[in-house]
Amino acid sequence: MTVQVMAEKQIPSLNTPFALQRGQTIKNRLFKSAMSEQLGDRQHNPTPGLVNLYRTWAEGGIGLAVSGNLMVERTALGEPKNVVLDERSDLNLFRAWTAAGTRNNTQFWAQLNHPGKQIPNYLCKEPVAPSAIALANGLEKGFNKPRALTHTEIETIIDKFASSAGLAREVGFTGVQIHGAHGYLVNQFLSSRHNQRDDQWGGSLKNRMHFVLAIYRAIRERVGEDYPIGIKLNSADFMRGGFTEAESMQVVKALAEACIDLIEISGGTYESLAMTGDVKTSTAQREAYFLDYAEQVRKHVDTPLVVTGGFRSSAGMNGALQSGATDFIGIARPLAVDPQLPNKAMADHNFRTELRPLTTGIKAIDKKVILDITWFEHQLERMAKNKAPKPNLSEWLSFFKTLFGAGAYALRRRRA
Predict the structure, then answer these.
(1) 341 and 312 in contact (C-beta within 8 Å)?
(2) pLDDT tens sequence across 210-258
């Protein structure tokens, strides 16, 4: 693909439509990034609560919504209540979900994922990964050391991604997103820290990116040329020996050459979380965490880009779009407390939202129940029950809901 000349493009704003190369039009530039909903049933099908939740977001004006993790293999779950999309799924429940999520002319994509070794030890005794390398940085107690995948198993997982994508199209998702970030299996293959294989799947970056490209091609063959496929990709892992920014740029180029439809930029893993804590002054002023990286990507490819993380104002969002660095504004946690944010941001150039710092006042408790995740899940749970979010929800109430609602799972290591 060649880089387009910016002068030829309309100066975009939040409510400017965007036409993908395969013909689908996204009605505006607001993109709901994936969040952990934890609303699957015991068979890992979508619940009525997910139907309510995504109807609420669709009515709030979002242009493109991406689901939380849909696992491609039901023996490989990242969290207890993950939804799985495979041959054993109840497809009618998925159809009800997509019917709600595509209301109001909303695009609704399925995020497809395999956790690799990022499976809590209470869910799996022997996870799999590119290499038999355990998670570190204090995660050893919560996650078991993985077994290295065989070549046949790798091919099987690739086929499972393709099968889930075919089912996603069948049940009414308008596109799919490969989860290639945050230390899950695709990201593990890309990382020289976690992928130390000496076969065609490891070693050089060209070999390490073989897995993600094989998944993309298998999905493309399964869903056809007219169906959009995107990816969520780390700009970097922010770890010594991990996936670097320079390597990420090369993967972006390879995906662009393969004609992927949309790239969402993120960063970090379980071992080194990004988008938390202090940020540079320049980043805070621009709001977006990964906009500098996106500007570098834009010099090399014209594949549509999403930058997610940090946006809080219409001015910041429009500024990012008009800089040409990104085509979509990715939003996650603000939508958990204000599902009408897209409509508000498009209607008011002075719109701004803030997320207050969350703490019980006791750091050990905050960390134990992962308050920065579970508090937002409780907001999603409210919307799932057709209740309005509660921005002033007590952190202590959230703590007790987590403790008593999840039982033994509440104190285990988790992540969105």
Answers:
(1) no
(2) 999 999 999 999 999 999 999 999 886 555 566 788 899 999 999 999 9
Q: What is the pTM of this model?
A: 0.91
> pLDDT per residue over 344-357, tens digit each?
999 999 999 999 99
Task: For residue 207, give the amino acid letter.
Answer: N
Tell me the three-class secondary structure of the chain, residue by residue: CCCCCHHHCCCCCCCCCEECCCCCEECCCEEECCCCCCCECCCCCECHHHHHHHHHHHHCCCCEEEEEEEECCCCCCCCCCCEECCCCCCHHHHHHHHHHHCHHHCEEEEEEECCCCCCECCCCCCCEECCCCCCCCCCCCCECCCEECCHHHHHHHHHHHHHHHHHHHHHCCCEEEEEECCCCHHHHHHCCCCCCCCCCCCCCHHHHCHHHHHHHHHHHHHHCCCCCEEEEEECCCCCCCCCCHHHHHHHHHHHHHCCCCEEEEECECCCCECCCCCCCHHHHHHCCCCHHHHHHHHCCCCCCEEEECCCCEHHHHHHHHHHCCCCEEEECHHHHHCCCHHHHHHHCCCCECCCCCCCCCCHHHHHHCCHHHHHHHHHHHHHHCCCCCCCCCCHHHHHHHHHHHHHHHHHCCCCC
Structure tokens at 363: 């750091």
